TrEMBL record:
GO MF term (any one): DNA-binding transcription factor activity
SMART domains: DeoRC, HTH_DEOR
PROSITE patterns per UniProt: HTH_DEOR_1 (PS00894), HTH_DEOR_2 (PS51000)
Keyword terms of this UniProt record: DNA-binding, Transcription, Transcription regulation
Protein name: DeoR family transcriptional regulator
UniProt source species: Youngiibacter fragilis 232.1
Pfam families hit by this protein: DeoRC, HTH_DeoR
Annotated HTH deoR-type domain residues: 3-59
Classification via InterPro entries: Carb_Metab_HTH_regulators, DeoR-like_C, DeoR_HTH, NagB/RpiA_transferase-like, Tscrpt_reg_HTH_DeoR_CS, WH-like_DNA-bd_sf, WH_DNA-bd_sf
Length: 254
């Protein structure tokens, strides 16, 4: 079999199965694992939807539009609750915090709402602000234009308010994280707004479940190393952890 033909068949396997391992490719095509690794590197260079991962390759998902809030709300609920619980442990009474939009952040807001903490909470998320009305915390909405698909506020008004505030800690969400550890969004408004939050925060944590990894979108916001920590349910291999450490990202697995 010619190398070009083998690459084509490997690509079809990845498209059909979403992921493949070096071992199964080696057996299927009767070539050495080293040859498979070289082939997968070529495929990842040839096709932007193929992502190399430890032990094989996977199909990246490209996110071109903001998914509806209610659709996301029912996904990975247990994972989001675990992430939120860890994030909640990082908050102290009388802190000024920022809560980003998103369903994982909403789980954190639920914990704050039933706690005895007296916080100043700034958010651009309508659902979060409504949830915190009965809480002991003071709640400030950023203002701005409502993004109807997600129920969050974006635009110059929101960015101006954020730029004039300072947060002890910011808790952020994400749509997609690619293999280069970049955080991406399909929304041009969020491309400028989210970095403004990090500039105003002494500490920042990215709250993401494992489904956010290996995805692509249009605009790069920042990278994982820009955060104080990344709280996630994603289980990384030893090799991936070493790569993260060399890159400068602090991963907090829950």
């Amino acid at each position: 079999m010619l190398a070009k033909e083998r690459l084509s068949m490997m690509y079809k396997m990845i498209l059909a199965n979403s992921s493949v391992t070096i071992e199964e490719l080696s057996q299927t095509f009767d070539v050495t694992p080293m040859t498979v690794r070289r082939d997968l590197e070529k495929l990842s260079d040839m096709h932007t939807n193929v992502v190399r991962c430890h032990g094989g390759a996977m199909l990246a998902t490209e996110v071109n539009i903001e998914e509806n809030f209610e659709n996301k709300r029912v996904l990975n609920v247990d994972d989001k609750a675990r992430i939120a619980s860890k994030a909640f442990s990082m908050i102290s009474d009388h802190d000024t915090i920022y809560l980003d939009a998103g369903t994982t952040i909403l789980e954190l807001a639920k914990l704050i709402a039933v706690s005895n903490l007296s916080l100043t909470v700034v958010t651009n998320d309508l659902a979060t602000s409504q949830l915190l009305i009965p809480s002991k915390s003071e709640v400030l909405l950023t203002g701005g234009t409502i993004q109807k698909s997600t129920g969050c506020l974006v635009g110059s008004i929101a960015e101006e308010m954020i730029s004039k505030m300072r947060f002890k800690v910011a808790f952020m969400g994400a749509t997609a994280i690619n293999e280069s550890f970049e955080v991406l969004t399909p929304s041009i408004e969020k491309r400028t707004m989210k970095p403004a939050v990090l500039r105003s925060a002494a500490k920042s944590y990215l709250l993401v479940d494992e489904d956010k990894f290996g995805k692509y979108s249009t605009y790069v916001i920042y990278s994982l190393k820009d955060f104080t920590g990344v709280i996630t349910t994603r289980v990384f291999s030893k090799t991936e952890k070493n790569e993260m450490e060399e890159f400068g990202a602090r991963i907090i697995e829950v």
